[in-house]
Design a protein that fits this description.
Blueprint: H1 3-32, H2 47-78, H3 83-92, H4 100-131, H5 139-170, H6 175-198, E1 205-207, H7 211-223, E2 232-235, E3 246-249, E4 256-260, H8 261-264, H9 269-284, H10 287-310, H11 313-317, H12 326-340, H13 345-366, H14 369-382, H15 391-397, H16 403-417
Helix pairs in contact: 1-2, 1-15, 2-4, 3-4, 4-12, 5-6, 6-10, 7-9, 9-13, 9-14, 13-16, 14-16
Amino acid sequence: MQWLTWAFLIALAAETLTRLWLGSRQIAAVQAHRNEVPELFRGQVALEDQQKAADYTTARVRQGRWATVVEALVKFGLTLGGGLAAVDTVWRDTGLAEPWRGVVVVASVVLLLQLVGLPFSLWTTFRIEARFGFNRVSPRLYVVDLAKQLLLAALLGGPLLLATLTLMEHGGARWWVWAWLIWLGWTLGLTWAAPTFIAPLFNRFSPLTDEALKKRVETLLERCGFAARGGVFVMDGSLRSAHGNAYFTGIGRNKRIVFFDTLLSRIEPAEIEAVLAHELGHFRLHHVRQRLVASMLLTCGGLALLAWLAGQPGFYSALGVPLPSAAMALLLFVLTVPVLTFFATPVMSWWSRRHERQADGFAAEHADAGKLAAALVKLFRDNASTLTPDRFHSGFFDSHPPALERIGRLNELVLAKK
């Protein structure tokens, strides 16, 4: 399988160069329109906001380009550079038995990757986000959050990793089927538990106290045939960021509607209703179910492929690992497959944008499309989202339609109802 060596190198180079090229296009696009607000947004977005969005986008993309280069070097260093083999050798010398040795090998590599990414996270939080007035995280809170995340990863991900490695070693040729079933149960259980047991570890959730807004929300839910028995909550998003948002979380009877306090302070009740109608559209149009099924199928196929690759000695040697093991197979798979499938990204982005357009249409039927457009313009402005992205960059990465397209379509829906 020495062809795999060249396939990986070519794919890694192609991914890196494509990301850098798209980043350059994005910077050029937003800077070219920095000093002119698009006609559709004039009167709603000030020139200073347009300039801020351009500069904010540029700063994030420039940092992302550095991160792209470092990520490529790390992937090369861990694979063909011998990094994984070195970590494996260190733990082999301890005499630790499987599958525990595999667990600590994987954990060591994950921690190493976390350390590599830490400077970029710190720069984003305390330089870029702070420079543009979004960051509200103190150094102490940052450390506390990081410690909680690592502890949760160990407590929740550790048993899943241990079960997977055990099945790879002793589960026979069909180990991947059992691993998939365990993963499925773990994912569904985590999705159910997250709103009640995990999210409150990081944020405070308070019941919505604005009775007028609460009544409006409840009326909309009834009109759309949606039951959220978990309730409607306000999250103290302002504790960490000035960005505003709203989301649904949970499954089954544990669904919960959450508004950021920063969002409620910026948009009117009728606009909140329209934003909520958009989110309801994702549920009523079965987008959440479709994405869950797609994730299940991709995971199933990925595990089947991993099972086949793990049995090929050439898979390890072609990627810089001399001694095969379950942990090495898993790590090589996680590091290389995203590189080899990178150019499928636009397909997934297209699918997501299609869902967003459909959810906008649903919102226009059950609420006021004009109010949704007004709310989105405020969110674009207050979150410093660029109104003029590069079309190739947007087509490759953006999960939502570009602002001009989205607001233009909502305005057409408003006119169609008159």
